[in-house]
Amino acid sequence: MMAKAFTTLISVEQLSAQLNNAKWVVIDCRFSLADTSQGENHFAQSRIPGAQYAHLDKHMSSPIIANVTGRHPLPDAQTLAAQFQQWGISNDTQIIAYDDKAGAIASRLWWLSRWLGHEACAVLDGGFAAWKNADLPLETQSAGIRATGQFQRAGQLMDVVKKAHVLNNSFCLLDAREAERYRGEREPIDPVAGHIPGALNAPFMDNLGSNGTFKSVDELQSRFDPILEKCSGKTLVHYCGSGVTAAHNMLALAHAQRDTGAMYAGSFSEWVSQSDDDEFPVVRLAD
Fold first, then answer.
1. Is residue 126 a part of any domain in this protein?
2. Are the C-beta atoms of 9 and 79 separated by less than 8 Å?
């Protein structure tokens, strides 16, 4: 067993001290919705030494089914576990995920790791920018291939809520999208604007300070405790546009030593994938 497992966030200094640790695997999660090849291209140019690349569409999602799924359906668990092995991950591996989107994409890998039952996964606080700003080494030659890991899926540490159960009275929904999208004032991606009825709003970017790193434990507790109070007696269920940035709020809660709740992984894009307004209604405060 590892002497110390990082399970929420890790600093660039802490990661730098362990770069040669064979039990650690660094995963580069850089990705752009506007250009889905951008992150992979940037990874090819330079990366944290020894990092492997995780593509949001190819590795961290399954194929979209029109009018059925959201934009980033959960990957098949067995396929993802096999991919973990390809990245060199075993059950005693410490995983570190990073991106260039304030943790928005890396948090997805953190959540998926827990979904597969692997708790020893942390997000690099401040991401690739913090690494570069600290003038730490970069790898620019071709990325190496690690020896295949021996990862086996364990009991999942994250609960998933299916679309048909979202409006259960025992759930308290929390929307991680920015306030304008939650209110339905604008919707740049999905065909319908607004939010799922009854949902509260906690934009994921508010988990960060002005320097792009996560707020302190005390600050995150002050942010989420009033929400948890409103949800008292109910299970907190997170969603966003496609089940990606919702994980950022769950990571923030875990770092704040609070119950993370469950995930509606299909999220808003799945909710509006069918045109049945009676069964899957949307609230638009902009009206």
1. yes
2. no
- Assigned token pair, 59: 């590795």
- Tell me: do 170 and 123 sit in the same domain: no
Distance CA 36, CA 57 (A): 8
Instruction: Please determine, for residue 1, whether its predicted confidence score (pLDDT) is greater than 70.
Output: no
Q: Is 46 part of any domain?
A: yes
> What would the pLDDT profile of 85-110 be if each residue is shown by its tens digit?
999 999 999 999 999 999 999 999 99
What is the C-alpha to C-alpha distance for residues 284 and 57, in angstroms, rounded to an integer? 29
Q: What is residue 243's DSSP assignment?
A: S
Contact predicate 265/223, CB 8 Å: no
Q: Which of 99, 89, 114 lies closest to 265, judged by CA?
A: 114
Query: Cα separation of 252 and 220, whole Å?
Result: 7
Domain range for 37: 9-133
Annotation marks residue 29 as catalytic? no
Q: Which of 247, 268, 266, 281 is nearest to 65 (CA)?
A: 266
168 and 129 fall within a common domain:
no
Tens of pLDDT, residue by residue over 146-188, are 999 999 999 999 999 999 999 999 999 999 999 999 999 999 9
Total domain count, the chain: 2
CA torsion through residues 231, 234, 236, 241, sign: negative
Please report whether residue 143 resides in a domain.
no
Cα separations (Å) of 177 from 40, 41, 171, 174, 232?
A: 25, 27, 18, 9, 22
Confidence tier at 131 by pLDDT (50, 70, 90)? very high
29, 121, 172, 240: which is the annotated catalytic residue?
240
Closest to 136 (Cα-Cα) out of 125, 128, 126: 128
